[in-house]
Every structure is written in C-alpha cells, then in structure tokens.
Amino acid sequence: MAESSSRPSEPTGVPPQIITFYSYKGGTGRSMAVANTAWVLAGNGLRVLAVDWDLEAPGLHRYFHPFLLDKKLRHSRGVIDMITLFAGSSATAPAGSSTAGVSVVDPAVQHRISEHAHVLDYAVSLDWAFPGDGGIDFLPAGVQDGSYSQTISTFDWDDFYTRKGGGAFLSALRRDMLDNYDVVLIDSRTGLSDTAGICTVLMPDVLVNCFAMNAQSIEGAVLVARYVANHRGPHPVRIVPVPMRVERSTAAKVAVSRAYARLLLGPFMQELPPDELGRYWETVEIPYVPDYAHEEILAPFGDPPDQPDSLLAAYERLTGVLTDGRVSGLPAMDEEARLRWLREFERPTPAESPTLLLCHAVADQVWGEWVAAQLRDAGLDVVRLPVDPLFRDFDGMRAMLAGVGRVVPLLSVAFLACPAAGQLWQAADAAEEAGSRFLLPVRIDGVVLAPPFDGRAPVELTIDSAEQARALLLTSVGPLSSTVPAAPTDPDTPADSGRPGASGETGDPVRAAATTRADGPRYPLRQPAIFEAPPRNPHFVGRQAALDALRAGLVHGGSTVPQVLTGAEELGKTEVALEYVHRFGPDYDVVWWIAAGQPYGIAASLALLAERLGVTTPMRADPNERVKAAIDALRNGEPYSRWLLVLDRAGDRAGTEPYLPAGPGHVLVTTRSTTWTGGSVVEIGSFTEQESLYYLRSRLSGLGAEDAARIAAPLENSPARLAGLADWLRDSGVGVEAYLRLHGV
Predict the structure, then answer these.
(1) Is 379 helix (H, G, I), strand (E, B) or coil?
(2) Which of 143, 166, 141 is nearest to 56 (CA)?
(3) pLDDT band for position 516 (50/70/90)?
(4) 418-433 per-position pLDDT tens digit
(5) C-alpha to C-alpha distance for 180 and 184, rounded to whole angstroms
(6) CA 728 to chain centroid
C-alpha cells in the first residue's frame, strides 16, 4: 500500500490531471509510453500514479518490475479488486438514484463509496529514489492468479454502472486520485467496448490517442476520437493523437501515412492554430527502435541522455506536449548506475536464471505448493517433483538433475520414507561442485536426520510466522542477486511505507509479498479455524491419480463445483476423501465432514456447523433456520471464504442437493449413487498391484515381496479385503507361512 499523504504543491506548475493512453488496436507501444512518461514526470519531482486499466491483458507492470516487490503481482490488489469489492458491498441502487451518472443521492450508496474509493489502499510504490517529492505509485489491474480471468470475464459492468452506483464510485475515485497525485496516467484497454467511456470520457482530462502508421490503426484512432467528442462527460477531454512505432527507414511510405493521419485527425485538434499544428506533429512522433522490441525496458535506462533521435528523447518531447512545456526533459542519470540497472531489465539467459527442482513427498503437497509460490514470486523458475514410497523412476529423476541449477528437497518424515529421497540426495550431492550450493535442503517438520541426510544443515521452516518463514526461505534458497527481499526488521511497519528507495530505508518487502489472498497457497503450519473430520488413516497408500484429480478439480474447477468420488462398495472412497482432508486441510479455514447417508443427518450436521461459525445460537430452536444460516454463511463466504464441505456416503443427488451451498468454497462428495452427474466425477477402483504389495509390506513387518504377491493374488487388489487380512494376521498371531499353508497359497 502506498504512503498516505496529501498531494504536494505543483513543483513545476503542472496542474493535477488524469491522462489516459488509449489505442484502437494493440501493438502501438501504449503501455511503454505510459511507463516512460511516468518516469520523466517523476524525475522532475512530480508524484505520479500509473494505472493498469487494460484489464483483459495487463502488462504495464513489466516495465516497472525491477522496482516492484511483488514482481508478478501474485498478491498485489488493483483496479478489478477495488471495483468488485465495492460492487459486492453495494445493494441495488434504489429508485430515484442517478445510477448511471455521477450523482447518487442515496446516503447508503454514498457511504459505501466513501469506504471504498481510496486509491492509496491499493497503489504500491516503486522502489526508486526520485528527486524531491517525485515518485511513481503503481495501481495494478488486479491480483494475477488462477481466478483473475474468470473475475474479468464474468464481472457485470452494466449492473455495476447502472444499478450499483458505479458512475458515482468512479467519479469519487477520480477525485481521490487527483487529491493524492500530481499526474495520473491510465493505460487503457484497446478497442471500443461497453466500458470504453470509463477511461476515455469519465476519468481523463487528456486522452492520448495512440496509433500506428497503417490505415486500420489510423482509422481506428479516428473512431476513438469521434467517440470521445460525441460523449460529453462531466469535464472536457483534450484529445492528443500520437503516432507510435514509426518506422523511419521507409521514408516515402511514412510520409503518406503522416499526411493521412493529419488529414483525418486534424479536425479533433482545433484548439491549436495552424502554425502550431505543424510543430505538434513533428514533436509527438514516437519512433520504432528494434532494440526495444524484445524486452520491456524503460528508455531512461536503455538510452544514454542527450541523444535527440533516441526513444528517450521522443518520450521527453511527448511529456512536454502533455504538460504544455512545463516538463520537457529528464535529469541525467549516472552512467554506471544506468548500465547496472539496464541489466535488471534484460531477460536472463538460462545459465543466469537456472531452474530450481523442488522435490517433496506427495503427503507434503501443501508445503510444495507454498514453497514453490514463494520462490516463483521471487523470480525463480521452479519445477516440482512429488514422490511417494512407490516412486521408482530413479533414472528419470537423475536425468532431471542435469537440466537444473539447484535442487531443494523438503525434508520430512514422509519424504525420508520414500526410497527416492536417498537416491535424489546422493545424486545431487555427487553433482555438486565446490561452493555451488547445488543441494539446499529445507526441513519442514521434526524429522530426525540420519545419514546421508545429516551431512549439511537444512533451512528450518518449522516456525509459526509465515512472514519469517518466507524471509528465511528467500534469504537461504532464493535468488542470489541483490533483489532478494530481506527479512523484516519490524513486522508492524507497512510494506510500502515511504517509498523505500526515496528515504534510504529497506522497508518490509517480505511482508508485502507474503500477504496471501483467498485463493493463494496458505502457509502450511497455519491450521483451520474449524476442523471436524475423522482421524487420518495411518496406513493410507497410493491413490495419487485420484488425489491429483480431486485437487485439480477443486482448485481449478470453479466455485463449488462438486467433486464426486464414486465407485463400488469397499473400494476406499471414504479413505481417499479423508486423505485429501488431512493432506490439504491447512489450505482451508473450515473443514467440515458430514455423514451424509440420510438427509436428516446432513441437516443436523449443518445446524451444528452454524453454531461453530457463530451465525446462530443453540437458543434458536428451529433447526431449519440453523441449516439455512449455515448454508448462507458458506455461500456468502462469511465469516470464512475458504471452506471444504465433505458429504460422505451421500445418497442420490436429488435428496442431497438442497444442502449443497454455492459460494467460494469446495464441496467433496463420496457416493455409490449414479445420479451424481452434474459435478466432476472421479472413479475409485481397486488398488494397483504395486499399491497392494506395498500396503501389505507396510502393515506386516518382515513380509517379503514374493510372499506379499502370493497373499495379494487371491484378494484381487481389494482394499477392504487386504485391510481385513492385515488386521487378522496382526491380531491373531498366525504367521505368514502358516497362513499360506492353511490356504494352500
């Protein structure tokens, strides 16, 4: 979150204004122009807000990534998060309200606007020391996670704008932006759409109409200009057409395109006298520079100063036009510093940015997901290799080591029980060159390390604080460059307080990047607030394909699409569900297991859940009210949005469906019924032969592979029959040889 402060006085005489950069077609270099203009303005002591409003294809952050803590925006809220939060808090505007415009008189709507229209709650500051009060704050499009595309595609802009008071909210947001910044630059989406008026009419004082030098782009720019001219907003909008990516090597064709653009767009620039109009077109042109075509590089770092034909000089001239000449140049940067920072923009070669192999037990998948997320957010390329006791592709695993630059095993009781753990350790240890830190172990539980694992001190992640764990992880395992976030010194210090680069402070980047949204990986030592489920089966074996399908379906299948485990009796549907609950339980706030054989049992369990959620009391006698309160709480995600509801041994769907909540959580069903066809169905069958043999050998001490195969053969890999036999052999005292002779096996 950006520093809260009033907008400074106008150090250069530039009045506060909002400038939208808009293009009818993509590929004009619009985002690049926004980023560079922001840098020139901030370099002259202005406080600038750069907004990525290209919600369908956000990319402005790529030009700022060396100076952002959350480089991939995994945790940084932005435009769509602000808007959806406001829309979710707003009831439909009452009759008599001006719902489509800027004036909503209903006090309740005005109160919600005052609560949510605060850009400083979402903007993040770039870590760079600009002169004076200068600085760039960045407002992203939104958190870039698995749900982002769905949020954008399903958001009802018409309902927001015409029924939720969206026009008034955006007008209030506009005022808030101007109260806190000297200049606001908006990188808008391409084309003309139902929401085009937000960025072209409602928000800006100036519209930079970006176009390339081809007929389609020029004619599209005319459509944009005509749209703005015909839609009068609450304030006048100055249209500034800017030709971009001008290829000057084809002089004759460029001259024709220039004449065509000036002819069609000239009528929208009548405020300029003819003599100034000619100078205008000569000034604003942005050239095409091939060296900038492959990477997102800011021109102040890519170009030396005082080069009149450079891209930097073109952006300086454009900034001069936008500020009426008040800002027309950027103070020179130390050349050594410029070249050093230029390397931060350039894409590293594979040798400079090696892939990291993260190996963990399948039982520790929540740890694998969390660790991988932290390392990826820090800029590392991470490949996860989950293993279980049945994993035997040792040759393939060793081959993977040749293509990675670092190996990080997550040491745990479950991991060390896998034969792959020892194989990986020995191969990585042998491949490590002196001083290379190729093998970096991380311990995630209290496992006692014995040879060969005790030869080096692991990183200890057995600490309660997610922020401290992330800091320790990145310091020990993360990138070796100077951009690695440091551990927090004061957990109560706001992450983006005071633009660290400007004040000389280090800030608290770990705290900022460790903030977890509702759909991001949770720190695994964090336990659910409510957990109600049977104990874990200590003898659970295999079923990895089913668990992988469940996890993928629940995480990526959409909100509350039921994941259904089906199959014949005694094949282990309940055991698979139970393993999922315990394996992934830390990823939820609420885990609630329901014996769902009869509808009255489901109702009774939901009534109890309502009490545990605090949404009803035992004094409310009507059980139907308590059931409804629980379903409403789950649907609304209040007080918890991350919940898992398991309905074990459910009957037909029709009898169970009234108790299935919609909402942000997950629903898992086990059933023999064939009526569950609306969700994602995972069929549970018998054990594989490998699973059967491992199960018997893990249950019966000293059982050899050959005897295990002889015992398992007549049981047809039935999990229930194998479990029953293992229990009988253990409890009866009958030896394996005696059993085999008795049954003639």
Answers:
(1) coil
(2) 141
(3) very low
(4) 888 888 888 888 887 6
(5) 9
(6) 50
Strands 124-125 and 135-139 come out as: antiparallel
In the block, residue with structure tokens 């800091």: 471
Tell me the domains of the chain and their CATH numbers: 17-343 (3.40.50.300), 355-497+505-514 (3.40.50.10140), 530-683 (3.40.50.300), 691-742 (no CATH)
CB 421 within 8 A of CB 363: no
Neighbours of 481 (CB within 10 A): 13
Can you read off the two tokens belonging to residue 635? 């649907």
pLDDT score of 500: 28
State the Cα–Cα distance between residues 145 and 221, nearest whole angstrom: 33
Q: How far is the C-alpha of 33 from the C-alpha of 52, rounded, in Å?
A: 12
| Structure-block tokens of residue 482 | 């100077």
Q: What is the model's pTM?
A: 0.54
Contacts of 568 (CB under 8 A, 6+ apart): 672
Tokens describing residue 698 = 């893990």
- Beta bridge partners of residue 17, listed in sequence order: 183
Tokens 């008034």, residue located: 168
Of 217-226, 271-280, 515-524, 639-648, the poorest mean pLDDT is in 515-524
Distance CA 559, CA 582 (A): 21
Q: Give the span between the Cα atoms of 301 and 325, in whole angstroms.
A: 23
Distance from C-alpha of 83 to C-alpha of 92, rounded to nearest angstrom: 15
Which of residues 459 and 495 earns the better pLDDT score? Answer: 459
Residue 263 tokens, joined: 């002819």
CA–CA dist 572, 578 (Å, integer): 10
